From TrEMBL, chain A:
<feature type="transmembrane region" description="Helical">
    <location>
        <begin position="130"/>
        <end position="149"/>
    </location>
</feature>
<comment type="similarity">
    <text>Belongs to the binding-protein-dependent transport system permease family.</text>
</comment>
<keyword id="KW-1133">Transmembrane helix</keyword>
<feature type="domain" description="ABC transmembrane type-1">
    <location>
        <begin position="95"/>
        <end position="324"/>
    </location>
</feature>
<feature type="transmembrane region" description="Helical">
    <location>
        <begin position="305"/>
        <end position="327"/>
    </location>
</feature>
<dbReference type="Pfam" id="PF00528">
    <property type="entry name" value="BPD_transp_1"/>
</dbReference>
<dbReference type="Pfam" id="PF19300">
    <property type="entry name" value="BPD_transp_1_N"/>
</dbReference>
<keyword id="KW-0472">Membrane</keyword>
<dbReference type="GO" id="GO:0005886">
    <property type="term" value="C:plasma membrane"/>
</dbReference>
TrEMBL record, chain B:
<keyword id="KW-0547">Nucleotide-binding</keyword>
<keyword id="KW-0067">ATP-binding</keyword>
<keyword id="KW-0813">Transport</keyword>
<keyword id="KW-1003">Cell membrane</keyword>
<feature type="domain" description="ABC transporter">
    <location>
        <begin position="6"/>
        <end position="256"/>
    </location>
</feature>
<dbReference type="Pfam" id="PF00005">
    <property type="entry name" value="ABC_tran"/>
</dbReference>
<dbReference type="InterPro" id="IPR003439">
    <property type="entry name" value="ABC_transporter-like_ATP-bd"/>
</dbReference>
<dbReference type="Pfam" id="PF08352">
    <property type="entry name" value="oligo_HPY"/>
</dbReference>
<dbReference type="InterPro" id="IPR017871">
    <property type="entry name" value="ABC_transporter-like_CS"/>
</dbReference>
């Protein structure tokens, strides 16, 4: 397992380099002089020249790339044009907000999706199976923004059960420690704030969880159905094992192998979905951060935001591969 | 113990299909005495596996239906509750299967799978169970048992896996071991070793074996008594010696002729012309009639019943209606 992990980490290096290169080229692919674009049409020639120099655009591109890489290695993500402060510092609270939302959404999606899939397979063709699969189909065809807006309209506005936007109560804001508010409020022992944070998480979490939950449920069901026909399941039953353990131990561990891939893929897509959801629910995450940066043409921020999301993608993939190896003993020997 | 370990009376197992309810095992009777090895032979598709699954209570429901009596130690376990069957499976009646390559769970170690069986039925702690697992592996002739216990099925050959299956089946010292074509998937040398092992285990323990096979050669090597099945019915039964010397049913005669004989080195092996009828195709007359060279008019319309001879041999064929017909053997084998 250890050597596999090392090998897998090693294979990330070219991927990360490629990613950095693409993001690096992006800003250079803007037609015309990026400095001009950044400064706008009214800028003076001197200002454009100064900006060109500041961005290092007067040097050959490979030197620029080298400088950019060195910057990344030392955690330098550039300076926001709008706020003039380092992106690497500015981005952290946004990033943590997104991570918290994504983790909660995935937790909801995995716990409910996997269990619904298991029970549907176990009791194939039962009313539960039919109901779960119809709901999953509906969930799949639901656009996130529409779902988000409906949630807000019915649950927050009509019924007044949950807050519409934000991460915490504006009149009693959470003091960030890790940036994950669920954790922070617990660390500081503020139970009242914790429940506020939970309330704020439910609607965007559910909106974001719906599609992955539906996909995970369907995938788990079909994977379980296939595994439960295997010879080794018959062996497990012939041992006198309880059906519950036949399903949740012997079948599930095998069935999880394709499900883990789907979970990884969906987590990646969910980061994309987060940009939309954050917008609807006023969630101060990286989606909001990039969105604002796009509106104000803050190129270093856009660049870094995309780089970070891409980096998260790669990390999720790594985790999926390691999980694979942990579940399936055959992988390490291939 | 007095009386048979298992006694099957009028067992009829049918499956609900689009064409209605089709009997696959059609009113069979047999018994196995404590410590005995009973052979059950018949071509593939004649209902041997379904018979064994009926005993184990593992006929897939709700499509499958089991009728008749299955007396285990004198108690009827046909259609017994799942809780009751769970206590018997793997504990008092164990089973091994035809496909050693797929009958072990690929994602658990050999040790986990052995220990698990023991811990389902015995209140042993992990250490004791592990100790016993190692002993069992040694008992079935697997060297380096201490290492094997931490290995996964894919690291073992087919023969080794079947030994593991046998160890797993024998770990709770069952009263009856159902072996459903345990050597069919193995090559000849390995097959001989596995049969030898099972024979020794049968001698050393008081476990009776229900040896299912389509190969009369296996029966000759392993069993005292044999039942020949055809299309879900018992068509001949008797001592192995008697049946080999004096087979009565034309189907048995055909099966005997298709045993490979090393001395004769025939180019092509004899095989009975035609195929086992698909279940449910015909219920009238002798099921073997379409393939029988002795078929009489009566054979097509009336079903023969099982006749018993003085030596205990039983046969289901119209030719023996008058208690004679011994000439069959001499005239067909030439
Ligand atoms: N679950 C099932 N549903 C319908 N038919 C079945 C089922 N299982 C077995 N059968 C049928 O029962 C017959 C006997 O099968 P089986 O007992 O496996 O034969 P064998 O003697 O080769 O072990 C076959 O024709 C098979 O198609
Ligand atoms: S009953 Fe008739 S058809 Fe059936 S085996 Fe005997 S002779 Fe052949
Ligand atoms: Mg079979």
């Amino acid at each position: 397992m250890f050597s596999y992990t090392v090998r897998r980490l090693g294979s990330l290096i070219p991927v990360l380099l490629g990613m950095a290169f693409i993001v690096f080229m992006m800003i250079r692919a803007i037609p015309g002089n990026p400095a001009q674009v950044i400064l706008g049409q009214q800028a003076t020639k001197e200002a454009v020249a100064a900006m060109t120099k500041e961005l290092g655009l007067d040097k050959p591109w490979f030197i620029q790339f080298w400088d950019y890489l060195l910057g990344l290695l030392t955690g330098d993500l550039g300076v926001s044009l709008k706020t003039k402060s380092p992106v690497s510092e500015e981005i952290v609270p946004y990033l943590m907000a997104t991570i918290e939302l994504a983790l909660i959404a995935m937790l909801i999606a995995v716990v409910i999706g996997v269990n619904a899939g298991i029970i549907s397979a176990w009791f194939q063709n039962s009313w539960f199976d039919y109901a779960a699969m119809v709901i999953a189909l509906i969930g799949l065809s639901m656009p996130i923004f529409w779902l988000g807006l409906m949630e807000q309209y019915i649950i927050s506005i009509q019924w007044d059960l949950l807050p519409t936007t934000g991460r915490d109560n504006i009149r009693d804001p959470v003091e960030a420690i890790t940036g994950l508010y669920l954790l922070d409020t617990l660390i500081s022992g503020r139970v009242d704030q914790f429940s506020e944070v939970v309330k704020h998480l439910i609607l965007p979490g559910l909106a974001l969880a719906t599609i992955p939950m539906a996909i995970i449920a369907r995938m788990t069901r079909s994977s379980m159905l296939e595994v439960m026909r295997s010879d080794f399941i018959r062996t497990a039953r012939a041992k006198g094992m309880r059906m519950f353990w036949v399903v949740y131990k012997h079948s599930l561990k095998n069935a999880l192998i394709p499900v883990v891939t789907v979970i990884g893929l969906q987590t990646g897509l969910l980061l994309g979905g987060a940009i939309l959801t954050e917008n609807i629910f006023g969630w101060p995450g990286i989606g909001t951060y990039i969105y604002d940066a796009i509106l104000s043409r803050d190129y270093p921020v856009i660049q870094s935001g995309i780089l970070i999301i891409a980096f998260l993608f790669v990390m999720i993939n790594l985790v999926v591969d390691l999980l694979y190896a942990a579940i399936d003993p055959r992988i390490k020997y291939k | 113990m007095k009386g048979p370990i298992i006694e099957v009376n009028g067992l009829r197992t049918s499956f609900r299909t689009d064409d209605g309810e089709i009997p696959v095992v059609n009113s069979i009777d047999f018994h196995i005495n404590p410590g005995e090895v009973l052979g059950i032979v018949g071509e593939s598709g004649c209902g041997k596996s379904v018979t064994s699954l009926s005993i184990m209570g593992l006929v897939p429901s709700p499509a499958g239906k089991v009728e008749g009596e299955i007396l285990f130690k004198g108690v009827n376990i046909a259609n017994a509750s799942e809780a009751k069957m769970r206590k018997i499976r793997g504990n008092e009646i164990a089973m091994i299967f035809q496909e050693p390559m797929t009958s072990l769970n690929p994602v658990f170690t050999i040790g986990e799978q052995l220990v698990e069986t023991l811990r389902i039925h015995r209140k042993w702690n992990k250490k004791q169970a592990r100790q016993r697992a190692v002993e069992m592996l040694k008992l079935v002739g697997l060297g380096r048992a201490e290492e094997l216990i931490n290995e996964y099925p894919h690291q073992l050959s087919g023969g080794m896996r079947q030994r593991v299956m046998i160890a797993m089946a024998m770990i709770c010292e069952p009263k009856l071991l159902i072996a459903d074509e345990p050597t069919t998937a193995l090559d000849v040398t390995i097959q001989a070793q596995i049969l030898e092992l099972m024979k020794n285990l049968n001698k050393e323990t008081d476990t009776a074996i229900m040896m299912i096979t389509h190969d009369l050669g296996v029966v000759a090597q392993m069993c005292e008594r044999v039942i020949v099945m055809y299309a879900g019915k018992v068509i001949e039964e008797g001592q192995v010696q008697t049946i080999f010397r004096n087979p009565k049913h034309p189907y048995t005669v055909g099966l005997l002729q298709s045993i490979p004989d090393m001395r004769l080195k025939k180019e092509r092996l004899y095989s009975i012309p035609g195929n086992v009828p698909r279940p449910g195709t015909s219920n009238q007359g002798c099921q073997f009639a379409p393939r029988c060279s002795h078929a009489l008019e009566k054979c097509l319309s009336e079903t023969p019943s099982l006749l018993e001879f003085d030596n205990g041999q039983q046969v289901r064929c119209w030719m023996y209606e008058d208690g004679k017909g011994a000439a069959l053997h001499d005239s067909t084998i030439s």
